[in-house]
Amino acid sequence: MTIDAHQHFWYYSPVRDRWIDDSMTVIRKDFLPKDLKPILEANGVGDCVAVQADQSEEETKFLLKCAEENPFVKAVVGWVDLCADNVEVQLEYFSKNKLFKGVRHIIQAENETFVLKPDFQNGISKLAQFGLVFDVLVFPNHLENIIKLVQKFPKQQFVLNHIAKPKMSETLDEAWVKNIQILATFKNVSCKISGLVTETENFEWQETMFKPFLDVVVDAFGVDRLLFGSDWPVCLLAAEYQDVLQIVKNYFINFSKADQEKVMGENAINIYNIKR
C-alpha cells in the first residue's frame, strides 16, 4: 500500500499563516482530513503522515486530534520547542500519544548556524530516547551545518524534507550535489522525495526537469532511505495531487516492484514506526 509520507492540515488563519502570500491564493483556505481522504482513495494511496506547518504546540495537538479521528492518518510529525529548558517534559507528554512519531522545526526560516546552537542540540539529544524522528526542513545553504548536526547524533533518525529544496528550474548546483552525497553517507539520514513542483520558477514545470535531481538523491540514498511525500496541499500551487504522485511513479517505473514498494510506503512504515 502506498503511504504519503508528507502532507499538512490546517484551518486557514490570515494572521498565523502569513507565509501564504499573494502568490498562494489557491491554498488560502482550510485543508482537513475530510478533504484529503477522497484524493488519497482516488489515487490508490492508503495512509499518510501529517507534518506540522505552524510552530506551536497547539498545532501538534491539532494534528494528533486529526490522526485520532481519522485512521488513515497513521503518524504525526509535530512541533515542540527544542530550545526550551523543559523540552524533555514536553516530549514525554506528547509521546504518550502513540501517533506522535516525530518533530520538525522550520530551520529554513533560521540562519545557517541555528542548528549548531547548544540549546537546539540539547533538544535534538532528547528525541532518540522517545523513539522520535527529526524532520529536516532546510534550504541548500543550510546543508553544511546539517551535516555537522547529523554527525554529532549518530543514534538519531533524521529525515530530509523536499530534498533540501534545490531550485528545480536551474541546472544542478554542485554544492547541493556534494552536500547531498555527504549527508547520505550517514545511515541515520533518509530523504523525502517531496516538494519538487513548488521549487520551480513561477510554479511552471515539465516532468523531465526533475530527473537530474532525483538521479542525485537515488544514487546517494538508495531505495532503502527514500520516501514519497506529496506535500499536499502546498503542492496545489503548482500541480494536482495525481501529478505529484505520477512524477515519482514514472521515475521509478523501471525499478523492481520491491524497490518501488519501499519508496512508496515501506520505508515510511519503518522510519516512522507506523502501526498497520
From TrEMBL:
It comes from the Bacteria. Gene3D superfamilies: Metal-dependent hydrolases (3.20.20.140). SUPFAM superfamilies: Metallo-dependent hydrolases (SSF51556). One of its GO terms (molecular function) is hydrolase activity. Residues 3-273 form the Amidohydrolase-related domain. PANTHER family: AMIDOHYDROLASE, AMIDOHYDROLASE-RELATED DOMAIN-CONTAINING PROTEIN. Belongs to the metallo-dependent hydrolases superfamily. This is Amidohydrolase family protein. It comes from Mariniflexile litorale.
